[in-house]
Write a structure and sequence with these properties.
single chain; 197 residues; alpha+beta; Alpha-Beta Plaits; 5-stranded mixed beta sheet; elongated
Length: 197
């Protein structure tokens, strides 16, 4: 089965939108929790850690940080979420039942850093940063569990597998969360020679 040409990108955009809405809802419900960053985009690969430190928008309004979704891998699967090891071509005419798309959601926030006098962040600052990361982690996890089943063209939404989530090591004044999710996309018939341009 061949993939529809825009399905992978549409899936990444859908996941980005789901997570962004969930972050906004969480910010409204949890005091002092930042919402969806102004910088939220689908990226062609792992994001550069260059947008976590300042709010954006008019007069610095809006949540700082960076929310990205990128594709980690695409693979054939007849028994989702396991990737196939079937050689195609020759006499093998059986295409895979679906295509697995592994997405990576990355949310970066500003981390507390050493001050101008060389003093490390206080325990209170570190605890507040930890709270932000923990709430973000739960929000992203819940967003994918609740939103993905309502997307797609199938009545029940696509099959998906939530992979490991990890808290990212602080780097360059950034901290954050990375969540992997693998989604099964249905295939479609390969274009025939008669219908190809």
């Amino acid at each position: 089965m061949a993939l529809n040409l825009l399905d992978v990108h549409a899936l990444a955009e859908t996941v980005l939108g789901c997570v962004c809405v969930a972050l906004e809802d969480t910010a409204a419900a949890v005091e002092d929790q930042p919402g969806c960053p102004c910088r939220a985009c689908v990226t062609p690969g792992p994001p550069a850690w260059d947008g976590c430190n300042e709010p954006c928008g008019v007069d610095g309004e809006g949540a700082g940080g960076q929310l990205t979704v990128h594709v980690a891998r695409i693979f054939a699967t007849s028994s989702f979420p396991v990737d196939d090891r079937v050689v195609q071509g020759g006499r093998n005419c059986a295409p895979p039942a679906a295509t697995g798309v592994e997405l990576v959601v990355t949310l970066l926030r500003c981390a507390p850093v050493v001050d101008d006098r060389g003093c490390p962040p206080s325990c209170e600052e570190l605890a507040a940063a930890a709270r932000t990361v923990h709430v973000d982690a739960a929000t992203i996890y819940n967003a994918l569990l609740c939103c993905l089943p309502t997307t797609g063209t199938r009545r029940r939404g696509p099959m998906f597998f939530l992979g490991a989530q990890r808290v990212l090591e602080q780097e360059g004044g950034c901290m954050g969360v990375e969540q992997r999710v693998t989604v099964a996309l249905p295939g479609c018939a390969c274009p025939s020679e008669e219908t190809s341009p």
